[in-house]
Amino acid sequence: MECVDTGTITATAQTQAAHGPNGTTAVLKVSSADDHSKSGHWCSAEYELVITPAAGGAPAVVDFLTSNGDWGRILSLRLEGFSYDGGRVFGIFSERGKYSYTTLFYYDTAGGPVQLVDLKERFRRIVTPKCRASFAVVGTTADGGIVLELPSAEGCTASGRWLLNSNGKVQRLGQGVSVLPLYESKVDAR
User: Fold this and answer.
1) Domain of residue 106, residue span
2) Smaller CB count within 10 Å for the chain: N or C?
3) pLDDT tens profile 26-83
4) Helix, strand, or coil (residue 121)
């Protein structure tokens, strides 16, 4: 969606619900509005993850980021799904505009804080400027590493699978490394 101010109504977008192995559901949402700054008006984008337990009850709303930037920038959301064991939920959001970025998030479904990983920074030395990288989470390793895939694209020598270790380092996924696929298939909303 475009970061816009619709007056008194906040502009919103959300992904389809992802379902975990234990019946927990997750939805990723973004809303935009004027930041009401007195020194200059920016478009504010607020990101939140809504987790609904399988047994019903009140959903947990996790507000994890607010960004301020240019009006008209493009806000994209992708909820990748749950880890195979349902312990974490993964997604990627990006903003395209003057200060573009792509961020991976993951959330421990037991109630931990949302962890954010700046993919543009992590892949700064790997992805060439000509490559329009689009990342996807495809699974995890047995020790909790996150497996990302960069699709093959023109000018992109970094295509293939990459491992984001628990220490935050990125490396090509080695041959023979076992990958536990995500439980939920990918869903996309723009």
Assistant:
1) 1-34+42-122
2) C
3) 999 998 877 666 556 788 888 999 999 888 778 989 988 888 888 888 899 999 999 9
4) helix
Binning pLDDT at 50, 70 and 90, where does residue 117 land? very high
SS3 assignment, position 130 = coil
Please indicate, yes or no, whether residues 80 and 51 belong to a single structural domain of this protein.
yes
Contact 178, 185 (CB under 8 A): no
Say whether both 102 and 10 belong to one domain: yes
CA dist., res. 161 & res. 89, Å (int): 19
So what's the pLDDT on residue 131? 74
Q: Which residues, listed in sequence order, are joined to residue 7 by a DSSP beta bridge? A: none
Say which amino acid occupies 12: T
Query: Tokens 């573009």 label which residue?
Result: 100
DSSP one-letter code for 57: S
Residues across the chain: 190
In the chain, the number of structural domains is 2
Same structural domain for residues 8 and 96? yes
Within this chain, do residues 133 and 107 fall inside the same structural domain, yes or no? no
Q: How far apart are CA 169 and CA 145, in angstroms?
A: 10
How many other β-carbons are positioned within 10 Å of the β-carbon of residue 50? 15
Q: What pLDDT is recorded for position 6?
A: 63
Residue among 101, 108, 93, 154 nearest 123 (CA): 101
- Tell me the C-alpha to C-alpha distance, in Å, between residue 40 and each of 30, 43, 145: 22, 10, 42
Distance, CA of 182 to CA of 105 (rounded, Å): 14
